[in-house]
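During the reporting period the student researcher (J.K.) took over the structure-prediction task from the postdoctoral fellow and processed the backlog of single-chain submissions. One of the processed entries is reproduced below for the supervisory committee.
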Amino acid sequence: MKQATNRAIRWAQAGLLTNALLVFVKLFAGIIGHSNALIADAVESSADIFSSLIVWMGLSIAARPADEDHPYGHGKAEPLAAAVVSLMLLGAAIGISIIAIRDIRTPHHLPAPFTLFIAAGVIIVKEILYRRVSRVGKEVGSTAVTADAWHHRSDAISSLAAFIGISIALIGGRGWEAADDWAALVAALVVAVNGARTLRPAISGLMDEAPDRTVKERALHAAAGVNGVRSVENLNVRSSGVGFYVDLHVKADPKLSLEDAHEIAAKVKYAILEAIPNCVNVLVHMEPYKASGSLSADAAFSLPRA
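J.K. obtained the following structure tokens:
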């Protein structure tokens, strides 16, 4: 899990440096080239800098081990960072909309042709960054990294809107200056949609929503495969940062000694840890097995008697 966290942090740092460079380029080109869409795009990229910084901090805090004040670790920092990034996306969308609406109502110069090349370059860079960061987010299971990836995708889309708007304004000539601003308004809508899209999984993480069902199934089969386990029930999994906590009840022969039951519990724990590499901890509660007990297929997994 430490390797996954470090990998996610490295990509957050890469995003921060890239965004800092792009903010300077787009803001300079937008001012010199009279492109309000590029200026609005620079504003959105400046939010990306803070989002990457927040993801970096959130992942660093989430990776800290449990302590006396935080016995279950600091994993909640990761979905909290994702929620902040998502809210920043929504805030950036509102800011871009305000600027675009103001400039639509205010006559201004046509954008310079060179701004097209700036917008095209930004689209390529941000789309590549989105694909790389998104893949890392899925591989390590980080909602914060995934939200940061969508920040890059929204920047690519807003730059695409700027490219289209600048093209229309340049082709149309005088009287089409506002096309640049309408493009910024469309980009703001896309940014808002992405912000809402990434906010839900962040809230789910804060609310301890169960992860993908496959994680539970892997834990279930790992526990059921341990010799001496008669039944598994009440298996619950919750995410914590990029890791998981697993709680379950294991039923075994009631004639077993306390020492033997403890040994089975330990085997179950390590079987689950091996099946789920990013599992932080497993809590096993041992119970006596009774053949008359009836369990639902979702809550338990029974093994035939020896």
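The committee noted the following: The first helix runs from residue 2 to 32.
J.K. will present the remaining backlog at the next meeting.
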